[in-house]
Amino acid sequence: MTDGLRGKVAIAGIGNTRRWHAPGRSAYDQLEEASFLALEDCGLTLGDVDALYCAHSTSGLPVLNVAERLGLGPNLRHADGTMVGGASFLFHMRSAVSALNAGQCDVALICYGSNQASAGGRLVPMPDPQPYEAPYKPRYPISSYALAAARHMHSYGTTREQLAEVALAARAWAQMNPDAQERGPLTLGDVLGARMVSDPLSKADCCLVTDGGAALVLTRGDRARDLARPPVHILGTGVAVSHRQIAQMPDLTTSAAAISGPAALREAGLGIKDVDHAMLYDAFTICTLMFLEDLGFCAKGEGGDFVASGAIAPGGALPVNTNGGGLSCNHPGMYGLFTVLEAVTQLRGDAGARQVAGAEVALAHANGGVLSSQATAILGTAATI
Amino acid sequence: MMPEDPRFDGPGPDARWQAALSEGVFTIQHCDACGAAQFPPAVTCRACHGGALSMVSASGKGAVYSTTTVRSREGAHNVSIIELAEGPRMMASVEGDPEAVRIGQAVTARVAPGEPPMVVFAAEGAE
């Protein structure tokens, strides 16, 4: 059915501003620089773009703002401003794959920028009142993730020490990435002793708050082969939506990654054991642990033991969040695109000291809202086609 | 001009829920077709997708499904997810010492007056 889409579209170019604290630059400045870099990376220009995909936490009309700013309007043949939080950009990838395959466009730009750190230093959620939750004053979004973590601990005996292992693994990878913001030493004691924010999650269980800009250029695979960089093929994508408010999540210990992951693997014709490298959106330590389980890297309830074994840290069996993740590299409000940037960097063999030897298949997984939207992409080198 | 469909006349479900709460009554919905209990309220049933729902008084009985203590300079307060005896879950707070709230604990609802009034829970057997 969907097997026909496998590998037909490729990521031809990537752009990353690497500006995690950039006072004086707007979100659109970050987005535009990243878009320019991504097009330059593959030898194209903004004049070649005929499809635009973007989402913002500060604008309900992202496509209009970006199309005007980048001068894309006259050439646009396809666009999608789906906003499902940090996973939006992987939803956009799926949309772009369909449009490119249908011949509705030829060069798709997926882009994002944020100045949330320099503009205020905290996550700025878009106005979206939740009258059945707001009166109880949960801290958004951490309390929602804390409720999921507390239930996971209750059901499976997961411990704060095991959650801390996620933060320690991310930091160990970050120390091999010159672009990572936090590269200093971090101990188990540091994580466990950090200020508690919403039990059982402390400040050290939370992602960074940074600025940043990221962009991808997608074309059909045949065209990508003629461009400047080795194409990274999109072998499969899967998306899933389960709730808006955390109290309405069907099972607080299982996310809809259990739907998006298998869907993406089915489209790719691969199994989870074929994945050499994984990027799992780590807004909080509990996210990495749950997604390892929900995607099938380990059984439900065994995520704690899995991370405590050292499996996801440098030298472990499964390299996860090799850029340092949202916990130690960067997290500009919506981080989804950065999971794909690092996966592409690894599959191109460009990851330097943190390079995963022989990586051919990467899984990029993004989360949005409060474990609300989940999207998975399976990417592969030319050898996988 | 076509008349509006009388099945959906009157205030919407959110407004009716708030109006009942203002009278001190905690309500949930009951599906006339499949019998499912539903919260938060909506026009259609999320279980069978039918369009006929009644607003009924909740039993007020439930159990803590998950819980967190939210900490700030102003102090600490409880935020929990309560699984109602009828089935649906809701966010709420459990009164008393936030650190004493436990997953699985039986709780009972009351409507705390205020602007807006709120459904809050107390541990069973507590004052």
What can you tell me about this protein's structure?
Chain A has 13 helices and 11 strands. By secondary structure, chain A is α/β, with parallel strands linked by helices. Chain A folds into 2 domains: 141 residues, Peroxisomal Thiolase, Chain A, domain 1 (3-Layer(aba) Sandwich); 219 residues, 3-Layer(aba) Sandwich (Peroxisomal Thiolase, Chain A, domain 1). In chain A, helix 6 packs across helix 10 and helix 9 crosses helix 10. The longest helix of chain A has 16 residues. Chain A is globular and about 50 Å long. Chain A starts with 8 loop residues before the first strand and ends in a 5-residue tail after the last strand. The model of chain A has no long low-confidence stretch (mean pLDDT 96). Chain B has 127 residues and is mainly beta. Chain B has 2 domains: 52 residues, no CATH class; 63 residues, OB fold (Dihydrolipoamide Acetyltransferase, E2P). In chain B, 8% of the residues lie in helices and 40% in strands. Chain B contains 1 helix and 8 strands. In chain B, the strands form 2 sheets. A 5-stranded antiparallel beta sheet of chain B has the order 6-5-4-7-8, with no helix packed on it. A 3-stranded antiparallel beta sheet of chain B has the order 2-1-3, covered by helices on one side. The longest helix of chain B has 10 residues. Chain B is elongated. The mean pLDDT of chain B is 96. At the A-B interface, helix 5 and strand 5 of A face strand 4, strand 5 and strand 6 of B.
